[in-house]
Amino acid sequence: MGWLFLKVLLVGVSLSGFLYPFVDFYTSGKTRGQKPNFVIILADDMGWGDLGANWAGRKFTPNLDKMASEGMRFVDFHAAASTCSPSRASLLTGRLGLRNGVTHNFAVTSVGGLPLNETTLAEVLQQAGYVTGMIGKWHLGHHSSYHPNFRGFDYYFGIPYSHDMGCTDTPGYNHPPCPACPQSAGPPRNLERDCYTDVALPLYENLSIVEQPVNLNDLAQKYADKATQFIQHASTSGRPFLLYVALAHMHVPLSMTQRPGAPRGQRLYEENLQEMDSLVGQIKDKVDCTAKENTFLWFTGDNGPWAQKCELAGSVGPFVGSWQTRQGGSPAKQTTWEGGHRVPALAYWPGRVPVNVTSTALLSVLDIFPTVVALAQASLPHDRHFDGVDVSEVLFGQSQAGHRVLFHPNSGAAGEFGALQTVRLEHYKAFYVTGGAKACDGSTGPEQHHEPPLIFSLEDDTAEGLPLERGGAEYQAVLPKVRKVLADILQDIANDNVSRVDYTQDPSVTPCCNPLQTACRCHTM
Ligand SMILES: *[C@@H]1O[C@H](CO)[C@@H](O)[C@H](O)[C@H]1NC(C)=O
Ligand SMILES: *[C@@H]1O[C@H](CO)[C@@H](O)[C@H](O)[C@H]1NC(C)=O
Ligand SMILES: *[C@@H]1O[C@H](CO)[C@@H](O)[C@H](O)[C@H]1NC(C)=O
Ligand SMILES: *[C@@H]1O[C@H](CO)[C@@H](O)[C@H](O)[C@H]1NC(C)=O
């Protein structure tokens, strides 16, 4: 009786606009009992230091910074791998690559993809009655039943892999620069390494190629339009929705867009960062005007900056991996240094996620799956283990407790793909293997194995510059704990249902609009 009275009182007060919005959520008839919508935006190759709210020197992300002040910003949030396909596979399965099988990238000619007996987040939500859409870079296999439309997404619009994995007529900026697609058949050109030139980059809508080659100059606007249309349709359908937007930004090639009013001489990277920020702003505005109180928006990145792209790569902020840079090579994308996997992360849900809060909880992209499934009142598949956990209490400001332990899989720079040889334990980080990715100067750090491991304390050494002394008391206290958690997870994985990926390649599976046209162009020039 007393509670009911209070509730009536609260409704009265909230209607007059005085009450903290948190209470409004529980009392508003409009949202009560409805399952929440989810929008997950994943940037590509964005640096921790590219987010203005993270790194004072950067000021190219006004929309994201505003989202940070209206929600929660995570400063110790990690991608599940330091390269594209494994990071995305872990986001959509809540499992590390050693379990879901995806330990390295798929190619244009890959026959397989994310194994079919892995259950994606979209499949779980689809079963729970959600309308599901994906826009952007998939990179989990595009051939046959590996296409996103068969992995739980009702709607798909995007390039099925990285937008440097095919030529275009609008090549944009890459390092080395890549030529435009050939217009007509001719003798093979003597092309620089790292450029794809035989097949033009495809753009799909559902199962059809709607453009090949893609015009990169209006891709950002197309993604914004399709995302806002999806939100519009879904929010009038009467069903809750999941929208996963995997941006092409900040991966190379960067586009040629010249925004009106951009300061002269501004770096290309920074202009593209602003373009990405404005794309995210358009999606958030759409959420705000259609489904604000009942939509959870999560923004993060797939891995750190691709340093070998020099001035076309982002900023790692303070996570400069100086132990590695002294050996040579880059400590960013493809490595297990912080610059490789510590990514910007924001959570926005008016009335649920507290405003303008910075969280230092240790969280991971792996947590998105279990958290979203819990909030959707669905259940996790029972016949496998998960590496992420439901962190909704952290998101709602009711707890500060993130992970005690995270494992960072090898992602190309050193060691075997997917192997767990870097361990985060509280504020310590232990490396059994180190190596640098290709740096701007062309150097790659040597692969080095460390037994016993190098251990850094991130609390006072964010740069990962000086390992703890092996003979010291602190090292001796941490080492047995590292050994124990590593042995435990390896044992757990050995007893889990793990999937195998078919990484074979066959040129005939290349997406091709018209095999009779040069570079598979959709139309004759
Ligand atoms: C894509 O598929 C969805 C779900 O089947 C459908 O509603 C939508 O109309 C399709 N869009 C296009 C452009 O084919
Ligand atoms: C967010 O918090 C910071 C520091 O706590 C404060 O300076 C700033 O004014 C706040 N912003 C908003 C929009 O409340
Ligand atoms: C693996 O899958 C089988 C068949 O679905 C199931 O019986 C078993 O419990 C699963 N194992 C684990 C560790 O979940
Ligand atoms: C997937 O299938 C393979 C064999 O086809 C099996 O070994 C594995 O346990 C399955 N994984 C899951 C998660 O069910």
From TrEMBL:
It is an enzyme of class 3 (hydrolase). GO terms for cellular component: endoplasmic reticulum; extracellular space; lysosome. Coiled coil: none annotated. InterPro entries: Alkaline_phosphatase_core_sf, Sulfatase, Sulfatase_CS, Sulfatase_N. The keyword Disulfide bond applies. It is found in: Lysosome. Keywords: Calcium, Disulfide bond, Glycoprotein, Hydrolase, Lysosome, Metal-binding, Signal. The gene is ARSG. The lineage of its organism: Eukaryota, Metazoa, Chordata, Craniata, Vertebrata. It holds the Pfam family Sulfatase. PANTHER family: ARYLSULFATASE FAMILY MEMBER, ARYLSULFATASE G. Its cofactor is Ca(2+). Belongs to the sulfatase family. GO terms for molecular function: arylsulfatase activity; metal ion binding; N-sulfoglucosamine-3-sulfatase activity. GO terms for biological process: gene expression; glial cell differentiation; homeostasis of number of cells; lysosome organization; neuron apoptotic process; retina development in camera-type eye; sulfur compound metabolic process. This is Arylsulfatase G. It comes from the Eukaryota. It catalyses: Hydrolysis of the 3-sulfate groups of the N-sulfo-D-glucosamine 3-O-sulfate units of heparin; an aryl sulfate + H2O = a phenol + sulfate + H(+). Its EC number is 3.1.6.1, 3.1.6.15. Residues 36-377 form the Sulfatase N-terminal domain.
